[in-house]
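User: Hello! I'm new to structural biology and keep hearing that structure can be predicted from sequence alone. Could you demonstrate with Polysaccharide pyruvyl transferase domain-containing protein? Please show me the input and the output so I can see what each looks like.

Assistant: Of course. The first part below is the input, the amino acid sequence of Polysaccharide pyruvyl transferase domain-containing protein. The second part is the output, the predicted structure written as tokens.
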Amino acid sequence: MSIKNFIIRNLTSISRAKNKRQTLKTIIKAETRHENWINIHRIDPNNIGDYYCAPHLYFDELKGKSLDIFDYKSNHPEIRENFVQSVSNNALIIGGGGLLNRNSFSMQLKTFEKLAKSGKKTVLWGVGHNSNNKSNFGKNIFYNIDTAAFGVVGVRDYNRIESYVPCVSCLHPIFDKKYTNTQEVGLIFHKKTLKDKSLVKQLSHYPYTSNTKDLESLVSFIGKSETVVTDSYHAMYWAMLLEKKVIAIPNSTKFFDFKYQPGFSTFSDFESQLKKTQVYTGVLEECRTLNLNFSERVFNYLNV
């Protein structure tokens, strides 16, 4: 990296840190209003799991009411101002996705917690822990926010005191389609893993895709695979909705607390686990019922 690029990157980082603090400080000081409701999540078209895990996509009452949780740090003042106004003037539906115990979302979630304790109507819908600290893998995770402060709470992590509400993307009609297995194993790489050209080349004798593809292509790939091997949470989840065998390559704590456990392995050793995985039935119906029941609680709370 050149000296010039190094300086530019550091100045950008400093500016962004300032933007973060100022935006959240402004929100905390603003008057609490409930003119409408807004669904806050990570809107990333290059990660379709993040993109499709939000309730505004599945309920007419919430259509068009979305906000990217990363807008608070934008370099564009008008985007930051829209974030301030949207959060200040509306009830908040936060989720879904792995927004808890992740540095990228910590400041925002702590701010939402403060707002909740000050009387802001807030909902956590299908959020979960997402620590990439390997020492926490498979262990009991304490959330980095006080979920009891929020008005209505549903988390995608199982066996907790909070209501269990798996990812709302189960409501997408694409999972009603019928698929036929045409390949024994299908690999699905997380977008970050896809950058590891050496790994991808090493496993290229298997059919593979990534979570950067469009939803229809990815679900079709899952549908024709007897066993899915993946380090993408939503690829794991969607494969289970379609009653596939799944081997997860965990890169975060999020994989360990889904109700139905996949096999766990690594990209270098998953072949030894292929005969040890199992199929779970009825997961799609269960997840849809849980989300529809939860939506009634949310809409009653928000007077939708």
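User: So the tokens describe the shape?

Assistant: Right, they're a compact way of writing down the 3D structure. Reading them back into a model, for example: The helical segments are 3-29, 48-52, 77-89, 103-117, 197-202, 215-223, 233-241, 283-302.
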